[in-house]
Design goal:
Elements: H1 2-21, E1 25-30, E2 35-38, H2 40-46, H3 66-76, E3 81-88, E4 95-104, E5 109-116, H4 118-140, E6 144-148, E7 154-157, H5 159-165, H6 169-172, H7 178-181, H8 186-200, E8 206-214, E9 220-231, E10 237-246, H9 248-269, H10 279-290, E11 300-306, H11 309-316, H12 318-333, E12 341-344, E13 349-354, H13 359-379, E14 387-393, H14 402-422
Antiparallel strand pairs: 1-2, 1-5, 3-4, 4-5, 6-7, 6-10, 8-9, 9-10, 11-13, 11-14, 12-13
Helix pairs in contact: 11-12
């Protein structure tokens, strides 16, 4: 008998040691709500010995909270097992416990095990708040944010994605093909398909492009897009994040700016009436050729002038004068090669620079231009238009100035005018 008692006592001590080792609060009650015992963790939290609780009624410290109500409900209820999260008041702040209850001894007693999950709940709340914050950021971002899962299906499609593409979330989520079809360039489309194949195969991928898309309505837009593999803390690939900005307005502005620059550059070197190079461009070319005139030798300059432009303007008006200028410019420029430089030198005069053209060729060219002028003049006999033309060619002297050649051509042109005037 003594041995059986000792064995039973030893087993009770062993059970108490196990219960004391539980990293939580353990208490057990009789069916009428009296303490049968507690473990050391619970007793120490009250600063009391283990025997202090035995035989006392539930709530003996005149404290009524969720735990005492749960114990009463469970003891009087029909269930043999139950678990619940319960908030219990503490001196500093309320603590949250996960309580597991189990009846035993033919349902005449019950054991309650409580684990403090306050920190876990706080962490969960923070994670949930962070998740909500991240969702809010994604939804309200001005850029398109799209996420592909490991099967290359879209699982995130924010409001900006809907606005930019015209496709709603319900049309896109769960699909993987629609995103590829947005891109009008098949080469870009193939690169995106390849990135998604890498995702399925578990390979890292990164893609940065600017490309055109066709929206749901058929409108064309330009996107600046970045695709990159997303990994978890273990380094495992979990998906493909895609961020894109609508740069259509920016590209249009860049195009307009570039066109304006080109237009400004064109106007800065071209005459607005005739479309020929202007005096500024001609002088820049003269300076450039003058640095090494022998490279262009023989270099010929041909000058032409409308002699009676002032009278035409006064008699027929400036619109008629502009028409004569344009006509003369067209006739003059069509007589030369693509490599020649043809410019409007002043209101009524023009000049052409002809590299590697000798004096004989220049005289023949000058005669041909005069023949064209005379032919046109005879066809328009009702409108008297008088021209003068002259040419000059370099002499093969390294110190020779292109401006001197131009002056010589103008002097020759003037001498022709004198002969025509005397005739």
């Amino acid at each position: 008998m003594n041995k059986s008692y000792r064995d039973l006592r030893q087993e009770m001590e062993q059970l108490q040691a196990v219960l004391d080792a539980v990293p939580g609060y353990v208490s057990w009650f009789s069916i009428d709500g009296r303490y049968l015992g507690v473990n050391k963790v619970l007793a120490d939290s009250f600063g009391k010995p283990l025997t202090y609780f035995v035989g006392k009624e539930l709530g003996f410290e005149r404290s009524e909270h969720d735990f005492t109500r749960f114990v009463r409900e469970f003891l009087t209820g029909s269930r043999d097992h139950e678990a619940r999260e319960i908030e219990i008041p503490d001196i500093r702040a309320n603590r949250v416990f996960y309580i597991v209850a189990q009846k035993y001894s033919l349902r005449q007693a019950a054991v309650f095990v409580g684990i403090d999950i306050t920190e876990l709940k706080n962490a969960q709340d923070k994670i949930f708040s962070l998740s909500q914050f991240q969702q809010m950021l994604i939804e309200n971002a001005d850029v398109m944010i799209c996420f592909f899962d490991r099967e290359a299906r879209i699982s995130i499609w924010n409001k900006a994605s809907e606005k930019i593409t015209g496709f709603g979330r319900e049309e896109v989520v769960g699909r993987g093909d629609l995103f590829d079809l947005l891109f009008t360039d098949h080469k870009i489309r193939n690169r995106i398909v390849r990135a998604k194949e890498d995702l399925k195969e578990g390979h890292q991928t990164a893609l940065v492009i600017e490309a055109a898309i066709a929206t749901k309505s058929g409108e064309s837009k330009m996107l600046s897009l970045s695709m990159k593999s997303l990994t978890n803390l273990r380094g495992d690939i979990v998906g493909l994040i895609t961020i894109a900005s609508d740069i259509t307005a920016l590209k249009n502005s860049e195009r307009i700016l570039q066109e304006s620059k080109e237009r400004f550059r064109y106007l800065s070197f071209h005459d607005s009436v005739t479309g020929l190079y202007n005096r500024a461009y001609l002088e820049a070319e003269i300076d450039r050729l003058g640095k090494d005139i022998m490279r262009s030798h023989p270099l010929t300059l041909i000058a032409m002038k409308i002699l009676n432009l002032k009278e035409l303007n006064e008699t027929y008006g400036y619109s008629m004068g502009d028409a004569v200028i344009k006509s003369a410019a067209g006739l003059f420029s069509r007589s030369f090669r693509m490599v020649d430089i043809v410019a409007r030198l002043s209101t009524a005069s023009f000049c052409a620079i002809l590299p590697h053209v000798n004096a004989n060729t220049a005289v023949g060219l000058q005669r041909r231009i005069l023949d064209h002028i005379e032919k046109i003049a005879s066809e328009r006999s009702s409108l008297p238009i008088y021209f003068a033309i002259g040419c000059a060619t370099s002499q093969g002297v390294p110190s020779e100035s292109v401006y001197d050649i131009l002056k010589c051509a103008q002097e020759n042109m003037i001498s022709i005018r004198k002969r025509e005037s005397s005739a």
